[in-house]
């Protein structure tokens, strides 16, 4: 997305705050690299000042409370945190507020608390629409809670985001994709997809060490998320993130014990999508197979996705089509996700 359109999001982490219990897969202190305490006025000022340096040409700035269960906090605490942001709203340094919360915290009483504040988006930690999977992961809410929450949110003006996971205990490809289809039936505005990592201090650590849980490989996680992405995309639901945010803690093997970790997980998924587009175009156009050279045209910002990590896509194309030589042509007039392929003879 163009930088002039996509807002600058300032993250303020509240690890585990408002959570009724710890889910089997969770350790937000590791994921967010932040202590498990609520930020005060000084901490928020430091974070806002730091991130505003990166605004660039972007017109919109949003502050986001992540890593906890925002509407699970005491009402008094919710209002205190929102009031800390008001000075930045009044001076037009920040345009909106967003946060993540559990589906079972959405009710008219909590949403009415927000009426006086410029809340632009609410993200629900859906994780799955399969009740057996939710129970296994010890989420403490049901798929019906998600359905009820989104139906109620649609009565307000908030954008609705969903956070879903791949690799949950007991989940398989068929149930994962069925869950994804149930999510899109609710018509959220956007989605985030996170692969499950085995984090130190989580219940998953015990299950993993006991052999009760086997994490996805990186290749399998990328393949599954690619399928989820296509389902969301077909339903016109914007996928704004795939994979966890990179940090020093996430690179620490003593903290992240197992799972499909990659600092650029989303890039791997997009690279797979580009590889598939090239192959589908060639396979559906027999005339291209009679050429010696093919020119693959993409937007300059898409070149790295076309090439893949360490040029793996070009190597795979060479192995799949050994009689063809591939040339990359960059054209800023094509759309970011577009791939055009022509014979070099024309």
Features:
2 domains; 3-stranded mixed beta sheet; alpha/beta; globular; TIM Barrel; 346 residues; 7-stranded parallel beta sheet
Put the structure in a nutshell.
This protein has helices at residues 28-32, 41-52, 75-90, 108-113, 131-136, 143-153, 173-184, 203-209, 218-234, 265-283, 303-307, 312-320; strands spanning 8-13, 61-66, 96-101, 119-127, 159-166, 190-195, 198-199, 238-242, 256-258, 293-298, 325-330, 340-343. The chain has 346 residues and is of the alpha/beta class.
Question: What does it look like?
Answer:
By secondary structure, the protein is of the alpha/beta class. The chain has two domains: 8-263, Alpha-Beta Barrel (TIM Barrel), CATH 3.20.20.70; 271-343. The chain is 36% helix and 19% strand. A seven-stranded parallel sheet has the order 1-2-3-4-5-6-8. Strand 3 (96-101), helix 4 (108-113) and strand 4 (119-127) form a beta-alpha-beta unit. It is globular. The two termini are 32 Å apart. 38% of the residues are buried.
List the helices and strands and how they pair.
Blueprint (H helix, E strand, L loop, with lengths): L7 E6 L14 H5 L8 H12 L8 E6 L8 H16 L5 E6 L6 H6 L5 E9 L3 H6 L6 H11 L5 E8 L6 H12 L5 E6 L2 E2 L3 H7 L8 H17 L3 E5 L13 E3 L6 H19 L9 E6 L4 H5 L4 H9 L4 E6 L9 E4 L3
Parallel strand pairs: 1-2, 2-3, 3-4, 4-5, 5-6, 6-8, 10-11
Antiparallel strand pairs: 7-9, 10-12
Helix pairs in contact: 7-9, 9-10
| CATH architectural arrangement of the largest domain | Alpha-Beta Barrel
Give the averaged pLDDT, no decimals. Answer: 92
- Strand residue content: 15-25%
- Anisotropy-based shape: globular
Low-pLDDT segments: none
The level-1 CATH class of the largest domain: Alpha Beta
Total strand count, please? 12
Radius of gyration: 22 Å
Helices and strands, in order, run as: EHHEHEHEHHEHEEHHEEHEHHEE
SS-derived structural category: alpha/beta
Oligomerization state of this entry? single chain
Distance between the termini: 32 Å
Superfamily (CATH H level) name of the largest domain: Aldolase class I
What is the CATH third-level topology name of the largest domain? TIM Barrel
SS summary, helix count:
12
Question: Major β-sheet, in short?
Answer: 7 strands, parallel
The total domain count is: 2
Spatial strand order of the main sheet: 1-2-3-4-5-6-8
- The portion of residues assigned to helices is 25-40%
